């Protein structure tokens, strides 16, 4: 078309006009990436070079644009480099010689190297021409994008003054140029190794300037927010960064800006060195709660996770309590969100809040424990795990047991039921804590920070969580079972069923939990012992009688003895065939005290309030236990 | 006076004997079982008599309350087991039978002597056990003791002798001899003898 136009009108056109038309045509053709290879092959680079040599400002500007289009294609750039044109252009781009606009397009072609920046800076400082700046900015955006993963090249660019060029562009006050500025900065901040240097050279000031532009484009502010988010991952001194984040939030309500800032806050909260700073800043707490209240889901998640991390700090927990944010938190967790992930994170935060002994009473008073138990009703293994963990921790303290007994036991049983239903009880024991038979378990759980941990995605990890939950439930039930009033609660709540299913999986931990729960439970009120027998304690004891583990034997025999003290339960126990289990358990020990205990229990079964129980005695003899009694008597009885 | 000290022991060796509580509970359990007569055959099959043998070792050697209880329970168990015909035959084969009976006889305890009379009455009911009874070395003093005691015991004594006469005629002469011995003692015994003679 160009050739045809020239043929038809060439003679009538002046030389300059033809030059402009040719350069414009080339520029337009080069705006399409697909044509680049053919154009370069056809000699477009040489043509542009010649046109520039004409030293006409208008033509040169068009050539700069054309070249900018061409250089934006990395493949072509590499080809140009391979052809050795680079050396020539590098010479041209020397600062002393790169003084004219005519050379600028050549400088741009020297690709992500310091010369470009230097020239860009020179051009921007010298001319402040919007068109030139737009081309320069666009080129720098491309260049910074190409090199953003090469930290050493970026550092070179920074040292050679790219930030000055950005400042110059910013000073022009054009919103499009500001967008380029923000994009360039965002690209430069991609690699964290240059963060300190960039901050030292004033990148935060530029970001603040871009952020506070009331007429600025939303995209510019989003890139500023993204830049701050990048800085949050590694910057050592974060006071200014936090100030910039807060300032940006104050100047923008764009969702993506809030999202990036929330991610930045979260990133800071995962760093131990920054946590305390955030934990004690009430304004930040306010911002985070606001994020949780009314933002988009991802932002809410960031806000929730940040608060979760901050709640690991005791002072923060105190401040949240004092400012009433804990109540807000509870309301958000229970009512204002339907997101399972947010509820899970909230549950983690509530766990952390309850962790601080200093405020525990108050936290319980204002409903944190209640909220956690409520959250555990949802079908989330993470939340259920946390609930089980809290209840276990509470169960380790005498003064706290009373608070959780009535509502905690049903929750524990329901949670453990759900875990069983989900996993079919095929669980392994990866986590255990010491459990002393006949005593409550000490709380030796790690006081861990519940940090971002959404990597639990594999089936194996899910199994691990479920196994962990089950053991917390078992541990808590173990401890609570020791209370006198626990008997009825457990019996009616399905605890025996839970224990039976625990025993269905051959696992040492399961066995000891089961034996210990039953042992502790057997100390309940005498009347409640009857309920336990009615609910199936004997089949459970029969199951336990297979064990040769000393702790299980102790717990089983003690349980049998305690249950046998309940007169009303004796007949049931005999009918349920407890006697063979008793002698089988005794067969596994040579401990005299245990044998005495077991025989005492057996003796109880032969009696009722007024003498011997004829029916039970007849049944007991029928079970064939007498040879074992004879053996025990001969082996362990006093030999005169 | 010169006191010669012995060697000092370095350590006190505790008794390795078993637990008296174990024996006590076993005796209580067996006693309760034995109170149900329907269990006797099974107890016999399950070698409960071996337990009784252990209890018999406490006879006359009991010091503590538990030991005394074992002894008492053992006696009671024996007397209960003698209520079952099929058990008596086995019981009399054990040495423990004599141990318990002699103990009861010399215990000076009226309830135990009553037990003994019941045991002998039950044994006497067993057709082939007459000779066994009469040949017991304590048979004579036992009848004497019965004759000198309460009316119940006297009645039992008469029943025993009567049964012996009825069930084992070859031993009548021995029975007569016994009744002759009884005659020498008192007017009361004369009446007893008359009674026996009348039955004859």
Write a short abstract of this structure.
The complex is a heterodimer of chains A (640) and B (200). Chain A is mainly α and 640 residues long.
Task: Indicate the topology.
The complex is a heterodimer of chains A (640) and B (200).
Chain A: H1 2-9, H2 15-29, H3 36-41, H4 44-53, H5 57-71, H6 74-82, H7 85-92, H8 104-108, H9 114-127, H10 130-147, H11 151-159, H12 162-172, H13 175-188, H14 195-200, H15 203-211, H16 218-231, H17 239-251, H18 255-269, H19 272-279, H20 282-294, H21 297-310, H22 314-323, H23 325-336, H24 340-355, H25 357-365, H26 368-375, H27 381-395, H28 398-423, H29 459-480, H30 486-493, H31 495-504, H32 508-521, H33 526-534, H34 537-544, H35 550-564, H36 567-575, H37 578-587, H38 592-605, E1 607-608, E2 611-612, H39 614-622, H40 626-636
Antiparallel strand pairs in A: 1-2
Helix pairs in contact in A: 2-5, 4-5, 5-10, 9-10, 9-12, 10-13, 12-13, 12-15, 13-16, 15-16, 15-17, 16-17, 16-18, 17-18, 18-21, 20-21, 20-23, 21-24, 22-25, 23-24, 23-26, 24-26, 24-27, 26-27, 27-28, 27-29, 28-29, 28-30, 29-32, 30-33, 31-32, 31-34, 32-35, 33-36, 34-37, 35-37, 35-38, 36-39, 37-38
Chain B: H1 20-34, H2 40-45, H3 48-56, H4 65-81, H5 85-91, H6 95-106, H7 110-125, H8 130-134, H9 139-147, H10 151-167, H11 172-183, H12 187-199
Helix pairs in contact in B: 1-3, 1-4, 4-7, 6-7, 7-10, 10-12, 11-12
How would you describe this structure to a colleague?
The complex is a heterodimer of chains A (640) and B (200). In chain A, strand 1 and strand 2 form a beta hairpin. Chain A has a two-stranded antiparallel ribbon. Chain A contains 40 helices and two strands. Chain A is mainly α and 640 residues long. In chain A, helix 22 packs parallel to helix 25 and helix 33 (526-534) packs parallel to helix 36. Helices cover 73% and strands 1% of the residues of chain A.
């Amino acid at each position: 078309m160009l050739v045809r136009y020239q043929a038809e009108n060439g003679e009538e056109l002046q030389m300059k006009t033809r030059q402009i038309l040719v350069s414009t045509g080339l520029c337009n053709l080069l705006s399409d990436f697909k044509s680049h290879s053919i154009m370069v092959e056809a000699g477009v680079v040489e043509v542009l070079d010649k046109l520039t040599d004409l030293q006409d400002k208008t033509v040169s500007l068009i050539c700069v644009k054309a070249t900018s289009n061409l250089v934006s294609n990395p493949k072509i750039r590499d080809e140009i480099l391979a052809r050795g044109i680079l050396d020539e252009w590098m010479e041209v781009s020397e600062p002393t010689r790169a003084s004219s606009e005519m050379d600028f397009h050549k400088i741009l072609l020297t690709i992500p190297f310091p010369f470009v920046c230097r020239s860009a800076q020179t051009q921007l400082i010298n001319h402040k021409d919007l068109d030139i700046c737009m081309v320069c900015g666009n080129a720098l955006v491309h260049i910074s994008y190409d090199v953003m993963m090469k930290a050493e090249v970026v550092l070179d660019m920074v040292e050679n003054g790219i930030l000055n060029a950005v400042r110059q562009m910013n000073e022009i006050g054009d919103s499009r140029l500001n967008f380029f500025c923000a994009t360039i900065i965002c690209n430069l901040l991609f690699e964290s190794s240059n963060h300190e240097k960039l901050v030292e050279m004033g990148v935060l000031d530029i970001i603040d300037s871009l952020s506070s532009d009331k007429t600025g484009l939303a995209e510019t502010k989003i890139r500023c927010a993204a830049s701050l988010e990048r800085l949050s991952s590694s910057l050592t001194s974060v006071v200014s960064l936090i100030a910039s984040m807060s300032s940006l939030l104050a100047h923008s309500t764009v969702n993506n800006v809030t999202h990036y800032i929330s991610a930045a806050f979260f990133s800071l909260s995962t760093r131990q060195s920054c946590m305390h700073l955030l934990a004690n800043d009430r304004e930040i707490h306010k911002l985070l709660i606001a994020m949780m209240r009314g933002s988009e889901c991802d932002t809410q998640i960031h806000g929730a996770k940040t608060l979760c991390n901050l709640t690991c700090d005791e002072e923060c927990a105190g401040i949240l309590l004092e400012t009433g944010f804990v109540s807000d938190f509870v309301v958000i967790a229970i009512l204002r969100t339907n997101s399972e992930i947010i509820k899970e994170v909230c549950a983690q935060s509530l766990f952390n809040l309850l962790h601080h002994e200093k405020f525990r009473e108050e936290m319980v008073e204002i409903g944190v424990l209640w909220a956690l138990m409520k959250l555990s009703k949802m079908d989330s293994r993470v939340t259920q795990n946390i609930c089980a963990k809290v209840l276990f921790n509470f169960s380790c303290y005498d003064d706290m047991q009373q608070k959780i007994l009535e509502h905690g036991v049903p929750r524990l049983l329901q949670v453990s039921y759900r875990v069983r239903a989900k996993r079919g009880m095929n669980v392994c024991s990866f986590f255990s804590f010491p459990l002393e038979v006949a005593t409550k378990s000490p709380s030796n759980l790690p006081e861990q920070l519940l940090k971002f941990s959404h990597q639990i995605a594999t089936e194996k990890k899910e199994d691990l969580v479920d196994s962990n939950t089950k053991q917390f439930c078992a541990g808590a039930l173990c401890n609570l079972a020791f209370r006198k009033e626990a008997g009825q609660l457990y019996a009616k709540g399905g605890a025996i069923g839970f224990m039976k299913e625990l025993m269905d999986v051959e696992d040492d931990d399961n066995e000891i939990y089961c034996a210990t729960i039953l042992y502790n439970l057997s100390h309940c009120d005498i009347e409640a012992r009857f309920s336990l027998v009615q609910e199936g304690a004997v089949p459970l004891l029969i199951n336990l009688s297979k064990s040769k583990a000393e702790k299980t034997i102790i717990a089983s025999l003690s349980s049998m003895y305690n249950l046998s003290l309940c007169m009303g339960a004796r007949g049931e126990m005999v009918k349920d065939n407890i006697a063979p289990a008793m002698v089988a358990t005794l067969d596994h020990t040579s401990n005299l005290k245990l044998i005495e205990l077991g025989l005492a229990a057996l003796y109880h079964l032969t009696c009722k309030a007024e003498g011997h129980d004829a029916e039970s005695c007849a049944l007991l003899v029928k079970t064939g236990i007498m040879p074992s009694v004879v053996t025990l008597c001969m082996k362990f009885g006093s030999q005169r | 006076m010169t006191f010669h000290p012995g060697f000092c022991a370095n350590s006190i060796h505790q008794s390795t004997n078993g637990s008296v509580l174990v024996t006590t509970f076993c005796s209580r359990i067996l006693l309760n079982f034995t109170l149900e007569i329907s269990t006797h055959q099974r107890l016999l099959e399950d070698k409960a008599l071996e337990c009784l043998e252990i209890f018999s070792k406490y006879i006359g050697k009991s010091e503590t309350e538990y030991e005394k209880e074992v002894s008492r329970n053992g006696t009671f168990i024996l007397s209960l087991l003698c209520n079952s015909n099929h058990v008596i035959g086995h019981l009399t084969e054990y040495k423990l039978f004599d141990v318990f009976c002699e103990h009861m006889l010399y215990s000076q305890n009226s309830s135990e002597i009553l037990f003994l009379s019941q045991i002998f009455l039950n044994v006497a009911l067993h057709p082939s056990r007459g000779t066994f009874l009469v040949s017991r070395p304590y048979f004579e003093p036992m009848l004497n003791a019965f004759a000198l005691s309460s009316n119940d015991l006297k009645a039992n004594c008469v029943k025993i002798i009567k049964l012996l006469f009825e069930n084992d005629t070859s031993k009548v002469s021995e029975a007569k001899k016994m009744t002759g011995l009884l005659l020498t003692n008192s007017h009361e015994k004369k009446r007893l003898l008359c009674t026996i003679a009348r039955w004859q």
